[in-house]
Design goal:
The complex is a heterodimer of chains A (202) and B (84). Chain A has 2 domains: 84 residues, RNA polymerase sigma factor, region 2, helix turn helix motif (Rna Polymerase Sigma Factor, Chain: A), CATH 1.10.1740; 81 residues, Arc Repressor Mutant, subunit A (Orthogonal Bundle), CATH 1.10.10.10. Helix content of chain A is 69%, strand content 0%. Classes of the chains: A mainly alpha (202), B mainly alpha (84). Chains A and B meet through helix 2, helix 3, helix 6, helix 7 and helix 9 of A and helix 1, helix 2, helix 4 and helix 5 of B.
C-alpha cells in the first residue's frame, strides 16, 4: 500500500503543520479506522465520533509518533484506545463488553457438528444469514472481536495486530483461533436450525 | 477415531488453515482428518466461517460523514466529494 518513504514524509509534513498532509492522511487512513470503530462499537454515529477523535488525537500528538510501528499501525492504536474508552462506559447494550474471565488459552471443544460448509451459495447470501454473521460478531467478547476484526476482516499481520492491541503475538494467535471457533459454533447452530426448520415445513 | 487426537490437534487448526503450521503438524492433522469425520466437519466449517466474513461487503463512511470528519478537523477546504 504505502511505502515507508511516503509515510515518513507524510508524518513529517503533518508535524510541520501542513494541512494538505493532514487531509491526505485522512483520505488514506479514515476508511479503515472507521471500519475498525464500527465493527467494535456496532454503531455508526459512535464510529464516526471515534474516527474524528482518532485524527484529532493523532495530529495533536504527532510528535510522539514512533516510526518503528508505521503510521497506519499507530493510528489504529489510537483508534482502538478510543474504542476501549467507549466500550468501558456503562450502559452499553448494542455490543458485548464481556471480558475474558476464563483461562486465556482455553480452547473450547467444538459442540455443533452439523456440516454446513457446502450448502447452495444462495443459503449464505440471504439477508437473514448476513444479519446473523453481524450478530455473531457483535456477540463475541471484545478481546476476541478485536483480534478477529484486525486479522481476518482487515487482514493485518499477527505482529501489527499485537502492536495495535498491545498484546503478545501468542495472545493474538490464541484469540484469533478462539474467535473463529466461537463464530463457527454460532453459524453452525444457525444453519442447523435453519435447515431443520425447512425440513419441518416440507 | 481417537478423542485424544481431536483435542490435541484442535489448537493448531487455525494455523493449519492459514498455511502457517509446520510441515510436521500439517502431516499430523491430515493423517487425523483422513480417519475422523467429525474433525473434517470442524475444519471445513471453520474454513467456511473465515471465508464468509472475508467476503462480507466493507462498510464505508458516507459522503455526509466524510464531510463532517473534514469539518471537525478544520479541513473543510480540502474536502473533495467522491464521485460515485
Amino acid at each position: 500500500m504505502n511505502d515507508h518513504a511516503t509515510e515518513q514524509s507524510l508524518s513529517e509534513r503533518i508535524r510541520a503543520g501542513d494541512k494538505a498532509a493532514c487531509a491526505e492522511c485522512i483520505e488514506i487512513h479514515s476508511p479503515a479506522i472507521y471500519r475498525l470503530a464500527l465493527r467494535m462499537l456496532g454503531n455508526q454515529a459512535e464510529a464516526e465520533d471515534v474516527t474524528q477523535e482518532t485524527f484529532l488525537n493523532a495530529f495533536k500528538s504527532i510528535d510522539t509518533f514512533e516510526w518503528r510501528a508505521g503510521l497506519q499501525t499507530w493510528l489504529h492504536r489510537i483508534a482502538y484506545n478510543n474504542v476501549l474508552m467507549r466500550l468501558r462506559k456503562p450502559r452499553r447494550e448494542t455490543v458485548s463488553v464481556q471480558v475474558l474471565t476464563e483461562n486465556e488459552g482455553l480452547i473450547e471443544t467444538p459442540r455443533q457438528l452439523f456440516d454446513w460448509c457446502c450448502l447452495p451459495e444462495a443459503e449464505y447470501a440471504t439477508t437473514e444469514a448476513r444479519a446473523e454473521l453481524a450478530r455473531a460478531l457483535n456477540d463475541l467478547p471484545e478481546k476476541l472481536r478485536a483480534v478477529f476484526v484486525l486479522r481476518d476482516l482487515e487482514e493485518h499481520s499477527t505482529e501489527e495486530t499485537a502492536t495495535i492491541l498491545a498484546i503478545s503475538t501468542e495472545a493474538v494467535k490464541t484469540r484469533l483461533h478462539r474467535a473463529r471457533l466461537a463464530l463457527r459454533e454460532r453459524l453452525a447452530d444457525y444453519y442447523a436450525e435453519r435447515i431443520n426448520r425447512r425440513e419441518e415445513t416440507k | 477415531m481417537e478423542q485424544h487426537d481431536c483435542r490435541h490437534l484442535l489448537g493448531d487448526l487455525s494455523e493449519y488453515l492459514d498455511g502457517d503450521a509446520s510441515a510436521a503438524v500439517c502431516a499430523e492433522i491430515e493423517r487425523h482428518l483422513a480417519d475422523c469425520a467429525k474433525c473434517r466437519v470442524v475444519v471445513d466449517t471453520l474454513r467456511k466461517t473465515v471465508l464468509l466474513y472475508h467476503d462480507q461487503p466493507k462498510p464505508e463512511l458516507d459522503e455526509n460523514a466524510r464531510a463532517r470528519l473534514y469539518r471537525a478537523l478544520d479541513l473543510q477546504n480540502f474536502f473533495a466529494p467522491k464521485s460515485q
